[in-house]
């Protein structure tokens, strides 16, 4: 999906591919995919696809996009590292290495439903009740607050 990588959330830009070893199966898969496409997004907007095509086909824009993606990935990694260090520094019970070992925009914190609800309802830190949190929401200005809230949730519940 290019929707997240290009910030085109309402455009749903992406590609779906299947590799099939049997020509008879190709027709079956194609038939099923055509049904799904018709039911799901029969006539999607073309704006997002045009933006992506323009960037991917322009060497200067493509290089700039790669640099932007690299910058964001590095920022997410640094925020993961900061959160890990803060939790360890607070002496928060548990192993928090999973935060730095995971990759991507989201992290499974290991918090349970009650702990997650405390973060949501009391600290206004929004994550899924499963403990899954968007690491892009962490900044140098709020990582101390988030770490302290997680510490409180883990030690009090």
UniProtKB/TrEMBL annotation:
Entries under PROSITE patterns matching the protein: AA_TRANSFER_CLASS_1 (PS00105)
Record carries keyword Transit peptide: no
Cofactor(s) the protein requires to work: pyridoxal 5'-phosphate
Residues of the Aminotransferase class I/classII large domain: 1-150
Keyword vocabulary terms for this entry: Aminotransferase, Pyridoxal phosphate, Transferase
Family annotation (InterPro entries): Aminotransferase_I/II_large (IPR004839), Asp_trans (IPR000796), NHTrfase_class1_PyrdxlP-BS (IPR004838), PyrdxlP-dep_Trfase (IPR015424), PyrdxlP-dep_Trfase_major (IPR015421), PyrdxlP-dep_Trfase_small (IPR015422)
Gene Ontology molecular-function annotations: L-aspartate:2-oxoglutarate aminotransferase activity; pyridoxal phosphate binding
Catalytic activity reported: L-aspartate + 2-oxoglutarate = oxaloacetate + L-glutamate
GO BP term, example: aspartate biosynthetic process
Keyword Transferase (UniProt): yes
Record GO cellular component, one term: cytosol
Family recorded in the similarity comment: Belongs to the class-I pyridoxal-phosphate-dependent aminotransferase family.
Cited PANTHER family: ASPARTATE AMINOTRANSFERASE (PTHR11879), GLUTAMATE OXALOACETATE TRANSAMINASE 1, ISOFORM B (PTHR11879:SF55)
Self-association and partners: Homodimer.
Note: In eukaryotes there are cytoplasmic, mitochondrial and chloroplastic isozymes.
Protein name: Aspartate aminotransferase
Organism of this sequence: Capitella teleta (Polychaete worm)
């Amino acid at each position: 999906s290019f929707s997240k990588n290009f910030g085109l959330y309402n455009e749903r830009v992406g590609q779906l591919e299947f590799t099939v070893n049997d020509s008879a199966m190709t027709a079956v898969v194609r038939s099923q995919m055509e049904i799904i496409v018709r039911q799901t997004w029969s006539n999607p907007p073309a704006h997002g696809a045009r933006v992506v095509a323009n960037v991917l086909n322009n060497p200067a824009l493509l290089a700039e996009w790669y640099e932007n993606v690299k910058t964001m990935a590095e920022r997410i990694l640094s925020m993961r590292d900061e959160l890990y260090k803060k939790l360890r520094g607070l002496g928060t019970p548990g192993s928090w290495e999973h935060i730095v070992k995971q990759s991507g925009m989201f992290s499974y914190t290991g918090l349970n439903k009650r702990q997650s609800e405390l973060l949501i309802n009391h600290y206004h830190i929004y994550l899924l009740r499963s403990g899954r949190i968007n690491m892009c929401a962490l900044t140098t200005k709020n990582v101390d607050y988030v770490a302290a809230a997680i510490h409180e949730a883990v030690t009090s519940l």
